[in-house]
Amino acid sequence: MKQSLYIRIEAGDPYDTGSLIPLKSEGEVLTFGRSSHTNETDISLLSPYVSRNHAEIFLQDDQPFIRDLDSKHGTELNNVKLEPEVPKKLQSGDVISLAKGVVLLTYLDTEMAETDLTMEFTSPIEPAEKKITNGLHIIPERRQISIDGEPLFLSGKHTDLLVFLYRKKNQAVSSDEIKIQIWPERMVAGSNTLPDVGNDEINALVYRLRKKLGPYGDSIVTVPRYGYMLQIK
Q1: How many helices (H) and strands (E) does the chain have?
Q2: Carries keyword rRNA-binding (predicted)?
Q3: Confidence band, pLDDT 50/70/90 cuts, at residue 121
Q4: What crossing angle do the helices spanning 175-182 and 199-212 adopt, rounded to 10°?
Q5: Residue 189: HSE in the Cβ half-sphere, 13 Å Cα cutoff
Q6: Residue 149 has what DSSP assignment?
Q7: Strands of the sheet with 220-223, listed across from one edge
Q8: Residue range 20-44: average pLDDT?
Q9: Distances in Å between the alpha carbon of 20 and those of 34, 62, 110?
Q10: What whole-number distance in Å separates Cα of residue 31 and Cα of residue 41?
Q11: Strands 29-34 and 43-45
Q12: Minimal CA–CA distance to 61: which of 27, 92, 23?
């Protein structure tokens, strides 16, 4: 098989952002899961929110498919949660999220593009006159973020928070809403209580996100005694 199919790791310890993982040949499976002494997967991840056997990607009749392996916190394809054990066909540029964005991946078929491999993994190439060069730009459906025309890759929780604030831009969002949206894995099944997340943890996440946004960090405004707001035009 001519190697043209890759997974790029955007976020997922212990891998560096931009790591490229080639897909396996027909009949072989690329597995994703939490590393341990007793469990081996092809892509071994460190997050405790990733299941031991979380998801897999495989080729069937030369077509790539992803399948969630009944993981605890789920797998999403372009922000749509996959049904456990039901294969879903992949298209070049698809964004894969494990455990609600703790791990973020991009699927690429390099034969589908006439561009350099690295560029294909970042953002679509636009004509020079249309290329975005200034400002903070967010495409929530693809969880893509750019600052002054350069792609910004964030960890899962940072992306979750920024996308959530963006969807409610220029509206105050309460701390309780943030807890529910960003830490759903801490909800107790069958309980109406909020996730076990303190305000200090929210404040710390916001602080780190502001730092990562650089000159645009001030766009995240504190709403005293309530929560936060993303203030943009």
Answers
A1: 4, 17
A2: no
A3: very low
A4: 80
A5: 2
A6: T
A7: 173-174, 227-230, 220-223
A8: 85
A9: 19, 20, 12
A10: 5
A11: parallel
A12: 27
Task: Please state which of the four CATH numbers 3.30.750.24, 3.40.50.10810, 3.40.190.10, 2.60.200.20 is assigned to the domain occupying 5-122.
Answer: 2.60.200.20
91 Cβ neighbours under 8 A, 6+ residues apart: 107
What's the CATH number for 136-230? 1.10.10.10
What tokens appear for 232 in the block?
A: 């943009």
**Sequence ranges of the chain with CATH classification 2.60.200.20:** 5-122
User: For 51-98, what is each residue's pLDDT tens digit?
Assistant: 999 999 999 988 999 999 999 999 999 889 999 999 999 988 888 999
Question: Token digits for 147?
Answer: 């600052």
Cα–Cα dist 98/57, whole Å: 13
Structure tokens at 130: 């249309």
Where would I find the beta strands (DSSP E) of 110-185?
Answer: 136-139, 144-147, 150-151, 173-174
Structure tokens that stand for 51 in this block: 């299941």
Q: Are strands 220-223 and 227-230 parallel, antiparallel or unpaired?
A: antiparallel
Burial of 62: CB neighbours in 10 Å, binned 0-12, 13-18, 19+: exposed
Give yes or no for a cis peptide into 22 (omega within 30° of 0).
Answer: no
Q: Which residue has the tokens 């009949």?
A: 27
Query: Using CA of residue 13, residue 104, residue 112, residue 137, what is the dihedral sign?
Result: negative
Highest mean pLDDT among 81-95, 110-124, 191-205 belongs to 81-95
**Identity of residue 6:** Y
